[in-house]
Amino acid sequence: MKLLKKFFIITTFFILIFSSLFSSSSYASSNLASNTPDEISSSNKNLTINSEAAVLIDADHGKVLYDKDSTKKMYPASTTKVMTAILTVENCDLNAEVTVSYWAVNSVPYSYTVGYITPGQVYTVNELLNITMISSANDAAFVLAEYIANLDNPEYLKDSSSEAKQSFNSSIEKFANMMNEKAKEIGCTNTNFVNPNGIHNENHYSTAYDLALIGKYAYGNSIIRSIVSKTSYNLDKNTNHPVYNTTNALIKDSSKYYYQYANGLKTGYTDAAGYCIIASASKDNVNLICVILNGKYLSDGTASRESDCISLFNYGFENYKSVKLIGEGDIVRSIDIINGTDDTKKVNVIAATTLSCVIFTDEVIDVTPVIQYSSILAPIAKGQVIGKMTYTIDGISYSTDLIASNDVYSSNVMNIILALLGVFLILLIIVSIISIKKK
Fold first, then answer.
1. Nearest 10 degrees: CA dihedral of 215, 217, 222, 224?
2. What does DSSP say about strands 262-270 and 274-283: parallel, antiparallel, or unpaired?
3. The predicted structure's pLDDT at residue 434
4. Most buried by CB count within 10 Å: which residue of 117, 182, 223, 307?
5. Positive or negative CA dihedral for 36, 40, 41, 42?
6. Terminus-to-terminus CA distance in the chain, angstroms?
């Protein structure tokens, strides 16, 4: 029994030593606003939003800043095209050429917006994406969807035959499945797409919150962000319609709804969906995504889609601020590597990226990060990831890798000592097991 007690004492001693070497964790919660739509809505009752559903989120981390029925199932109209853009940039070479099929053009219902493209014309993926996102062309969205669904079958039918029609329908169904899979990956829980453009269908639906998540994801892509910030797009090859103008009044300086901090995304409208938009805006390092569903024209002639967006953006910028938690290159702490040589063992642990969060303007952050080391035994290379630091605020995690400031060379003497200690511990365990078995 004495030997067993010694074993547990020595084992515990080694565990404590190595735990202190490889992990350093601490946590303090913050007392900030909730991040769930249901709880957020009660704190925004003084803000009048006339559209049926709306949500405002932090575009960087998804924190909900305002909510009005954001989880209600509704029709998204052409805001759907944001998901089409996501799948396009993630699956295609933007310089690849695409031939327009007959049914991609002739499957758009009358009165829906088109890009005046004709069967047999050849466009690059980039051209089709610009036409789709800037002018909300439903035919261009169909062309992209059919092309992406057939990336493994480049000789798909493009004529006016019934076989080509069946192929087109199958392609759109396949692309819709891709859309739904991506929506789930992004975090959407109440979204179902059946086409790439938002042409009305009772089984084609989403929520303001789900669309905000899709908008946030798209906003994080520099290609999409660049396209949706344009007010027009020139395409010389299309003599029937050479200039495509944006449908987003928030970014048009000639519009009465122009908003100087707005910088993109996508509008939508059908009779069933009303006026919809996923909009983005940035000011003072605060990036916001606003979603409005079923906006209407009010009795005074005001368009609630645009006016509600402006109200929400103003609310966000006036009531929230961006706070830096840690800067890229900031020294988190200095540590000694136990088996490093005397002249290299001291290393600064550095934040690999800048972390910031959005909080109320009168709030003060008092949160201690969790630090976990993954590798603090030599050899260590300068710039090597040796751990991770995470701040948790309102249930949202803000994390960055931790890297080494310098090379750390391995000390032969310390390696021998550590090896002997390891051998001793193993032998002690073996002896203890034998002793227990004998008893």
1. -40
2. antiparallel
3. 77
4. 117
5. positive
6. 9
Rounded Cα gap, residues 420 and 354, in angstroms = 41
CA proximity to 198, closest of 149, 248, 253, 268: 268
pLDDT 10s digits, 151-203:
999 999 999 999 999 999 999 999 999 999 999 999 999 999 999 999 999 99
Q: Which residues contact 224 (CB under 8 A, 6 or more apart)?
A: 82, 85, 86, 89, 133, 218
What number does CATH give the domain 50-319? 3.40.710.10
Domain 2-30+327-413 top-level CATH class? mainly beta
Structure confidence at residue 423 (pLDDT): 64
- Is 321 strand, coil or helix? strand
The rounded distance, in Å, linking the Cα atoms of 95 and 71 is: 38
Burial 32-68 (b: 16+ CB within 10 A, else e): bbebebeebbeebeebebbbbbbbbbbbbbbbbbbbb
Which pLDDT does position 419 carry in this prediction?
55
Q: What is the pTM of this model?
A: 0.83
Asked if the domains 2-30+327-413 and 50-319 are classified in one and the same CATH topology, the answer is no
In total, the chain counts a number of residues equal to: 439
Segment 72-97, tens digit of pLDDT: 999 999 999 999 999 999 999 999 99
Q: Collect the ranges in the chain with pLDDT lower than 50.
A: 7-34, 36, 38-39, 41-43
The C-alpha atoms of residue 387 and residue 258 are separated, in whole angstroms, by 46
Count CB atoms within 10 A of the CB of residue 164. Answer: 16
For 170, counting Cβ atoms within 10 Å of its Cβ (0-12 exposed, 13-18 middle, 19+ buried), the class is: middle
Q: For the chain, what are the domain ranges?
A: 2-30+327-413, 50-319
pLDDT attached to residue 148: 98
